[in-house]
Amino acid sequence: MILASDTRTNATIDPKEAAHFGAMAAEWWDPKGSSAMLHKLNPARLRYIREQVDAHWGGDTTRFTPLEGRTALDVGCGAGLLCEPLARLGAAVTGIDAAPENITVAEAHAAQGGLAIDYRACGVETMTGQFDLVTSLEVIEHVTDPAGFVRGLAGAVADGGLLILSTPNRTPLSKLALIAVAEGTGRIPRGTHDWDRFLTPEELTALLVAAGLRVVDTRGLVFSPATGFALGDSVALDYFLTAVKD
């Protein structure tokens, strides 16, 4: 999930973070493994992305491939949990991640599914070209320079394109739920989060605006023991932001 940084640029990642997620590569596609929480998050993530894609490009909400003819970049892609659905939605997908172990697993899994996804072990700072859709979900809280990271993301968005981010909010609820409960009970690996690195929606919005983007939507990610993760009005736990490059 973590971005690599070229030595020619300002580093935006902590090498320990890359190693942490790389160590989980072999279990990434196991819905009961160390990345189980990401599997549970994916339906809500995809619902949000589909809504934003349809709203931005005026798509037919019943169409199976709303991203056909468009390019997409997933930054901090892990082993491809988001890249593969984006490819099935019709996009020409590139996925980048700091951990080579993740890229190896991602390539093998995509090949098994007959999906042509361009995976690279690199950082957004080193990418050339621009993309219609850029996603980076649950990644920015792991970088050492959020402002520099956002500038890199903004530079990868084509004119008229979309950037979609998600990240935990820095609130008492997120500290309790993600660290005390989720990490404390082993539902996610210990050391996954540093609460002090979480950004509020206002802080992340300011970074996006400073990078030349316009925020068009903010939505909460909520959790219920009965229904699991879903989109909602409360941003106290986790949230999505969509920004456009006009």
Automatic annotation (TrEMBL):
UniProt cross-references to InterPro entries, sorted A to Z: Fumarate_lyase_CS, SAM-dependent_MTases_sf, UbiG_MeTrfase
Top EC class for this record: transferase
Residues annotated for S-adenosyl-L-methionine binding in this entry: 45, 76, 97, 137
Pathway where it operates: Cofactor biosynthesis; ubiquinone biosynthesis
Keyword annotations from UniProtKB, A to Z: Methyltransferase, S-adenosyl-L-methionine, Transferase, Ubiquinone biosynthesis
Catalytic activity: a 3-demethylubiquinol + S-adenosyl-L-methionine = a ubiquinol + S-adenosyl-L-homocysteine + H(+); a 3-(all-trans-polyprenyl)benzene-1,2-diol + S-adenosyl-L-methionine = a 2-methoxy-6-(all-trans-polyprenyl)phenol + S-adenosyl-L-homocysteine + H(+)
Keyword S-adenosyl-L-methionine: yes
EC number per UniProt: 2.1.1.222, 2.1.1.64
PROSITE patterns, alphabetized: FUMARATE_LYASES
Biological process according to GO: methylation
Pfam families listed in its UniProt record: Methyltransf_23
UniProt keyword annotation of Transferase present: yes
UniProt GO MF annotations: 2-polyprenyl-6-hydroxyphenol methylase activity; 3-demethylubiquinol 3-O-methyltransferase activity; lyase activity; polyprenyldihydroxybenzoate methyltransferase activity
PANTHER family the record matches: METHYLTRANSFERASE (PTHR43464), UBIQUINONE BIOSYNTHESIS O-METHYLTRANSFERASE, MITOCHONDRIAL (PTHR43464:SF19)
HAMAP family membership: UbiG
Family: Belongs to the methyltransferase superfamily. UbiG/COQ3 family.
Function field: O-methyltransferase that catalyzes the 2 O-methylation steps in the ubiquinone biosynthetic pathway.
Protein name, entry field: Ubiquinone biosynthesis O-methyltransferase
Native species: Sphingomonas ginsenosidivorax
